[in-house]
Write a structure and sequence with these properties.
Shape: globular
Largest sheet: 10 strands, mixed
GO biological process, one term: tricarboxylic acid cycle
Helix content: 25-40%
Domain Isopropylmalate dehydrogenase-like: 17-340
Strand content: 15-25%
Order of helices and strands: EHEHEHEEEEHEHEHEHEEHHH
Low-confidence stretches: none
Protein name: Isopropylmalate dehydrogenase-like domain-containing protein
Family: Belongs to the isocitrate and isopropylmalate dehydrogenases family.
Main location: mitochondrion
Bound molecules: adenosine-5'-diphosphate, magnesium ion
Amino acid sequence: KKTTTKIPRAQYGGRNAVTMLPGGGIGPELMKYVRDVFHFAGVPIDFEVIDIDPSTEGNDDLDYAITSIKRNGVAIKGNIETKSEELGAVSRNVALRNELDLYVNVLHCKSYPGIATRHPNIDVIIVRQNTEGEYAMLEHESVPGVVESMKVVTDENAERVARFAFEYAKNNGRKKVTTIHKANIMKLSDGLFLEVSKRVAKDYPNLEHNNMIIDNCCMQLVSNPYQFDVMNMTNLYGTIVSNVLCGLSGGAGLYSGRNYGDHYAIFEPGTRNTGTAIAGKNIANPIAMLNSAVDMLVHLGHNDHAQVISEAIYQTISEDNLRTPDIGGTASSTDVIENIMKVLSKKRVHWQHG
Ligand code: ADP
Ligand code: MG
């Protein structure tokens, strides 16, 4: 694949402020790579970096992060560890998505040539409800030894997510949407999710709509992932299926995930891992976070910058064969980043008259 995109010229104005939440584990080192690459490519973005410490009392840091995202509209984040195992300890990650009403998560798994995986050429999009379902965080111990956890499905959110899936399919030349559920057992909650998806499908007569039970979906994904195009599902199924799909096509270090609401967007690695065990070793794959940064550039309309960085990523891992150990290589994180910058340096636009 021969590419000719150049780094656009720097220009006054048109800069965006973006909230950066590095999170724990490998988050901070991956964010440093993002900033290095952006700096090198002259990306017109200024980051407002906010560290969230999950071990602190209270929610001041979280409130501060939310205020910042409301001001900037956009954030890039690593995973924030939830330290306390106590009942009632709130995941900062879930709280952020809920507070900002980021009702949908999108993960596009598109294989990179050259990486040995279980199945080649996978190209599947997961559209996941991102704020309710099994993540409603409504758990309590009714009597000692008995815990109840509520799964919440609303017509409104099921509709917003299904609508997003069909619109995405329509606007991206996709052919089919598959709704994933367990409506045979959870007749009311998943039943509603399925029913709403069928209702929304009527507005898209040119798209095929089918549905599949979550357990069969996992088996089908592992044995024949090519039958899937755009997938629509509730929150917990979404995180499990995302991990299955990423595992089939290169793992946790490659793909980005996008969280959208009507007003805000947060970009992060698709499988949302903290990576505590590999932090500080210069072995973490920087690509998933870089792809999140590319998604963010597209969202902000910096399409040329997005494209040059995306092409440099592709060339580095699929043509120059520089890969971290998680995708079968021997390169360090910084080897990969240095190569990306080397590729970018050939795409610089030099000042000229006229
Ligand atoms: P969690 O945060 O959900 O506990 P982990 O941090 O244990 O997840 O990550 C799951 C697996 O994915 C681990 O084996 C981890 O090393 C791997 N992993 C996650 N992110 C990356 C990355 N960027 N590069 C390489 N491996 C990664
Ligand atoms: Mg972990």
